[in-house]
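Below sits the subject:
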Amino acid sequence: MPLPILLILGALTAFGPLAIDFYLPAFPAIATFFATDTEHVQLSLASYFVGLAIGQLVYGPIADRYGRRKPLLFGVCVFTLASFACALAPTLEWLIAARFAQALGGCAGMVIARAMVRDLCDPLTTAKVFSQLMLVMGLAPILAPVAGGLLLDAFGWPSIFVALTLFSGACLLAVARWLPESIPANLPRPPLSGALGQYRRLFGDRSFLGHALTGGFVMAGMFAYIAGSPFVFIELYGVPAEHYGWLFGTNAAGFVIAAQINARLMRWHGPAYWLQRMVLLFFACAAVLFGVAWAEPAQLWPLLIPLFGCVASLGCILPNASACAMAGQGANAGSASALLGCLQFSIAALSAAAVGALHDGTAVPMATVIAVCALVGTLLSRWTARGERTDLAS
């Protein structure tokens, strides 16, 4: 895949982590500004997840019917306007609503980027390209909390959303000028009237559903960490807000490195092989994290070690789960990508809300949700693998 297209797709895919990670260090400041607490500010994160889940179902069939470029341009425009609305928020309710609108726009980039990779690549190359996209989008969670902390300290929390507005505006220009349509002109376009039928077919596809749900529960574990880490790091263990990004970025660096290792692992085995094994690694790290959290250590570092293992393992799991789910979807790649993203972020929204609902002033709620997500993801991976072996034997 040409480097300019890869960079643009990476930037579009980064809308999600940027809009999430950029403002994490500002949670306490936003709570103070709106005279509330961190748990209520977490609702702005949950509303973003809900918007991502709903919006993707809409963009998928539209992108299959009308092409990739027009829905993408529309979505990036919405994201840009909603980001500016977040910066102007006079109340927490305004911020929560603007975050929902921001997600409705941003999910266009996430859905259509995955679909374009499927348009242009075979399944094995798709796994490699997804891993490369992890490198591009991995800069977001490394740099965003650090930059967010610096902007927060210098200009206040609204400046974070102003920066998002400028970034998405630059992406809008890049898409308009350099990103071509990826659907061949002679490929049949499925009608919008068949969208529900396509989603029913995908729900009946055990391989697609199993891989999508495996990736969804694993991603939910990551978003439980994202939702819980501002409290655990900043308020529970006293990490300065401007230093939060360095800890968060260290884990993100592990994610990026693992994704690049995953691309090279494709030389020996396919994505399904590595997916099953890396899910077990994630479960092992989550189990250790759960035990450490219940011990309530006096210092932060015992939690950081298993957290690093959990986040790093995702760099192998997520691209492989996506590649396995998207394999064989062909002309309906947009709908498959949409349902994949919807399932993932619906579960992520529930996990983020669960961390807030279970809040008890310790790291236990975050660790518990991560461990439950890891267990369910592992069981789903084994269920999917058994089904594929059965299909091959029949």
Residues 123-155 form the longest helix (33 residues). DSSP finds 15 helices and no strands in the chain.
